[in-house]
Amino acid sequence: MIAFVIRRLVQSVFVMLAVAFVAFALFNYVGDPINNIVGQDTSLEDRERLRQELGLNDPFPVQFARFVGNAVRGEFGMSYQHARPVSHVILERLPATLELSFVAAALALLIGVPMGIYTGLHRHSALSQVFLTVSLIGVSLPTFLIGILLILIFAVLLGWLPSFGRGTTIAFGWWTTGLLTKEGIRALILPAVTLCLFQMTLIMRLVRAEMLEVLRTDYIKFARARGLPDRIVNFGHALKNTLVPVITITGLQLGSVIAFAVVTETVFSWPGVGLMFIQAVTAVDIPVMAAYLVLVAFFFVVINLVVDLLYYIVDPRLRIERAGAAHVG
Amino acid sequence: MTPLLEVSRLRVEFATRRGPLVAVDDISFTIAPGEVLGVVGESGAGKSLTGAAIIGLLEPPGRIAGGEIRLAGRRIDNLPPEEMRRIRGREIGAIFQDPLTSLNPLYTVGRQLVETIRVHSSLGGREAREHALQLLKEVGIPAAEQRIDQYPHQFSGGMRQRVVIALALAANPRLIIADEPTTALDVSIQAQIIALLKRLCREHGTSVMLVTHDMGVIAETADRVAVMYAGRIVEIGPVWEVVHAPQHPYTVGLMGSIPILGETRERLVQIEGAMPRLTAIPPGCPFNPRCPHVFDRCRSERPELVPAGASRAACWLHLGAERPVHA
Q: Which residue of B has its CA nearest to A218?
C-alpha cells in the first residue's frame, strides 16, 4: 500500500515535470518575452540588459530549473495583462471555479447515481424511459448550447435567475464564497446546472449499465436466496460492486469539469480561472497561460491519485494482491 | 408423516413472443423431513428451474404457470414477495453451483454470515458473530477465528463452498436446495463437500433437494432420486432401486452410460440422439424418438407416473407391468 502510494507519487512528479516543460516552452516559443514586456522604442542595449537581468541568456536547463523552482513555490511571474503576480490573479479567481465545479460535480453525483440505480432496478418502468430519453439530450447537446438555452429560458424569458457573474460573495481570507448569500446561490444555479448536465447523464448511464451487470451475478442471486431484503441486496451488495468504475469516471470527470469550466464560465461570464484563461489567451498573457496549464495538470494528478486510493478502499482484492496473495477473477 | 415439501403438478413457463415455452411440465414429488432427494437429468431437463421455482427465484420471463408448492402444509408458490423473502434462508436455504462467484467479493465472509444471521434472527452483532464463527468451525474451516475476517478471494474453491454451505445453514432452514454443489470443484474436493453436506443435514435434520447430473453423487448421498427428462419426471424411486433396477428406458440408458470400475466393457452405452429442445417436444412420451422400446401409444399419449418395480415410472411399458425392462 505505502509502496504503491510512493510509486504513484513519483509518477505524478514526472507528469508534473512534463507539463511544466510544455508550459515553460510557451515562454520561449510563443513570441519573444522581451517584446511582450517592453515598448517598441526601447533600445537594443536596454533589451539586452533586461534579457540579462531576467536570466533569459542562461542555458536552457538552468532556466527550466528556475521555472520549476518558482512554480513549486507557486510563483509564475507577473501577468502582462494585469501587471500583478500571476499567483495573486489565480488565487483570486480560483474559489469561483472550484465552487462552481464542486457544486456541479456534487449535483451530478447526487442526481446521477440515484437515477442510475432507479433505471437499473426498474428497467421497464415509464419513468426509466423518460430518464433515458432526457439523458440522451444531456449527452448529445454541447455545453455552450445548454448554457445559452438556460439563459434564454430562465434569465431572459422568465427572468427568474441572473445570467452572469457570481452575485454577492463573502470573503474568508483569500477564499470567496457565493454559497452563503441568496444572490450568490441564485447566480450559481444556471452555470452549475449547465456544467453538471453532461456529467450527470454520463454517471446515470454508467451506474445503470453497471447495476444491470452486477444484478445478474451469482452473488446477488445467492444474497436473495439467503433471504436478504431487497434494500440490502440492491444498495449494500449491488451498488458497492458498481462503485469502482463509477469512481474512475467521476474522478476523471471532476478533472474535466474544472478544466473545461472554461466554456461555461465564458457563457455565464463567471469570474473564474477558466474565464481568466480565455482572457489571457486573447491578450497573449503567457505567464497566466503557463500557470493555468500547470494548475489544471496539478488538479488532474491529484484527482487521479485520490481515485487510485479509493479503489483500495472499495476493493479488498487490490489490497491483498500487492501482498503477493493469489488473485482470482 | 406429512411431507416437508410437496410439489404437485408444477408447471414453469417462459413467455416468449411465439407463445409460452413449457420448461417444467406438470411435475409432482414430495420430500420428507430429513430426506435427501436427488434430482438428475441432462442440462436443460428443468432440474434447476424446479429448484428456482420452489425457492421463488425464477427469473422473468420464467413464471410458475400452474400447480402448487407446499412447505410443511403451507402453500408458498403464491406468497407476496416480502413473505417469500422471509421463507428464503430461514425455511429454505440454497447452495449454488459455483462457489467462486456465489460470495460477494467486497465483503468479508464474516460480514456476509452475520448479515444473513441477523436478517433471520434477533441476535445482536456480537452474538451473531459468535454464531458465524461457530458455523465456520462446523463446516470445517481451519483457523476460523482468523478466516472470518478474510475476503472470499482469500479462500480456495473448496473452502468457499464450505462458506457457502455455512451461509445456507445460517438460519437453520428445514430444506436446502443444492443446485450442482460440487460441479465446479476438483474431484478430490467433491467427495469432502458431499460428505460435509450429508453430515450437516443429518445433524440438523435438514431435508435436501440435491440437483446434479452426477449419478455417483446421487448414489452416495440421496435416499430417493427423481430422473428428469424434457421438463418431466420420468422415474422416481428409492436410490438403490433406480440405480440397480431402472424402470424407464431413459434411466436404463443413463445408468448404462456410467463407467463401472473393475468391469470390462467394450464401449459405454450411449443414448442415441439428444434431448428435444423446449420448442420441439414430441407429442406423447417426450423420450419416444430415442426410445429402443417405442410403440404406437408412446407417440400419441403422454404416460403418467405409474408403479414400476419399487419405483414409479412414466412409461407405457409399465401399464399393467407386463413387460419389465432391464438393461
A: B102
Give long-range contacts, CB 8 A cutoff, 24+ apart: B78-82.
B81/B56
Q: Is the pLDDT of residue A53 over 80?
A: no
Nearest CB among B89, B101, B171 relative to A219 is that of B101
Residue with cell 528556475: A66
For the segment(s) A94-321, the CATH number from 1.10.3720.10, 3.40.630.10, 3.30.70.1150, 3.90.230.10 is 1.10.3720.10
Greatest C-alpha distance within chain A: 87
User: What distance in Å separates residue B73's CA from the closest CA in chain A?
Assistant: 21
Please state, in angstroms and rounded to a whole number, the distance separating the CA atoms of residues A119 and A204. Answer: 8
Residue of A nearest to B149 (CA): A316
Closest of B249, B217, B219 to residue B235, by C-alpha: B249
Closest Cα of chain A to B127: distance in Å?
19
C-beta of residue B149 within 8 angstroms of C-beta of residue B110: yes
DSSP code for B245: S
Strand partners, B70: B6, B75
Range list for CATH 3.40.50.300 in chain B: 5-222
The letter for the amino acid at B241 is: E
C-alpha cell at B316: 407405457
- Cβ-proximal residues to A83 (8 Å cutoff; 6+ apart), any chain: none
β-pair partners for A171: A176
Task: Provide, as residue numbers in chain B, all residues whose Cβ is less than 8 Å from the Cβ of A324.
Answer: none
Question: B171: which chain A residues are within 8 Å (Cβ-Cβ)?
Answer: 227
Cβ atoms of A185 and A167 closer than 8 Å: yes
Digit-coded pLDDT (tens) for A270-305: 888 888 888 888 877 888 888 888 888 888 888 888
Report the C-alpha gap between A28 and B5 in whole angstroms.
85
CA–CA dist A224, B85 (Å, integer)? 8
Q: Which CATH architecture has domain B5-222?
A: 3-Layer(aba) Sandwich (3.40)
Closest CB from B96, B102, B106 relative to A315: B106
E strands, A128-259, in order: 170-172, 175-177
Task: Give the pLDDT confidence of B199-228 residue by residue, as tens digits.
Answer: 888 888 899 999 988 888 888 888 999 999
What is the interface size between A and B, counted as CB pairs within 8 Å?
A: 90
Distance between CA atoms of B286 and B215, rounded to whole angstroms? 22
Q: CATH 1.10.3720.10 in chain A, residues?
A: 94-321
Q: How far is A120 from chain B (nearest CA, A)?
A: 15
Q: What is the ipTM of this complex?
A: 0.85
